[in-house]
Design a protein that fits this description.
single chain; about 300 residues; Aminopeptidase; seven-stranded mixed sheet; N-acyl amino acid synthase FeeM catalytic core domain-containing protein
Length: about 300
């Protein structure tokens, strides 16, 4: 009896903790941020700031090795369908999140560990995306900027008809993603060499996310109701529209920006298969990459 009582107390305490954390997420602290804005990065300067922020945070966590460029990006960042969401204080990027769209040429980063799980979704004809490169400086985390990036990402996912949002996270962060953003288990824990740390795959069935958010948050006050925040409050896509970013956004980096980031990491194309090299040749026919065009 005592064991059951203690278990119930533990369950109640856990629910109370989650409720407090959910409530706190909507207490945005933006007063000290100069001209706060949120958008999808487009310029070289915006992308460079986002990559630098990810590099700094990931290096401190031991997820990546030092690099002379002091920037963290990979081949997926060169794809037109990849969205780098940024939260800015005037001209300075202070938080970022990247969303990578599945493609036949490149797949997703998580294919390295969870190809079988992702293929099950692909075989159902579902449009899958993967989140990565979430970074906010420690001194800014009290502002809850991530929740605004998540809201923008949700809205853009609706515009682009996404079916599934997947992510690989360190096991220590699983509870947050499941309790707050309602991710569900997708793949068991595995070691991810790319970040020298364990990872667990999580997934949101985006077709059902509005219903799930409503079920979980329907009894919460308005100020702590993430269903209202994500699904009913003024859309941040208004900002996306102003910045001329639409659901059919497919324009690649301009040639100057592309070359800038390639030259900072000149070996980034070394291990790409021919079909991926050919993909970039088609995007930038005037450039000579490090492998010939496949006829």
């Amino acid at each position: 009896m005592e064991q059951g009582y203690n278990s119930n107390l533990h369950h109640q305490e856990r629910r109370r903790t989650i409720r407090i954390r959910r409530s706190a997420l909507l207490r945005a602290n933006l007063d000290d941020i100069n001209r706060p804005s949120i958008k999808i990065a487009e310029t070289k300067q915006e992308l460079e700031q986002a990559y630098a922020l990810v590099y700094k945070e990931y290096l401190e966590q031991g997820y990546i090795k030092p690099h002379p460029s002091k920037l963290a990006y990979n081949i997926y960042n060169f794809l037109p369908s990849t969205c780098v969401y940024i939260f800015k204080s005037y001209l300075t990027v202070i938080s970022t999140l990247t969303q990578i769209a599945d493609s036949s040429e490149f797949g997703l980063p998580m294919d390295a560990l969870y190809r079988k799980e992702v293929d099950r979704l692909r075989n159902q004809g579902r449009f899958v995306t993967e989140l990565s490169a979430l970074a906010t400086p420690k001194e800014m985390r009290w502002c809850n900027l991530m929740i605004y990036l998540a809201k923008t990402m949700f809205e853009y996912s609706k515009l682009t008809m996404v079916n599934d949002i997947c992510i690989m996270v360190n096991p220590k962060h699983v509870r947050f993603y499941k309790a707050i953003l309602l991710f569900e288990d997708f793949g068991k824990e595995k070691f991810y060499p790319a970040v020298n740390a364990p990872a667990i795959a999580l997934r949101i069935n985006f077709d059902k996310i509005d219903k799930r958010l409503n079920q979980v948050y329907k009894d919460y006050d308005f100020e702590s109701n993430l269903y209202n925040f994500f699904c009913k409050m003024n859309n941040t896509t208004q900002t996306l529209y102003v910045d001329r970013i639409f659901a059919n956004r497919c324009s690649p980096m301009n040639e100057e920006t592309f070359l800038y980031f390639v030259n900072l990491k000149p070996r980034i194309f070394d291990k790409l298969p021919p079909k991926q090299i050919e993909y970039f040749h088609k995007l930038y026919p005037s450039l000579k990459l490090n492998k010939p065009i496949i006829k």
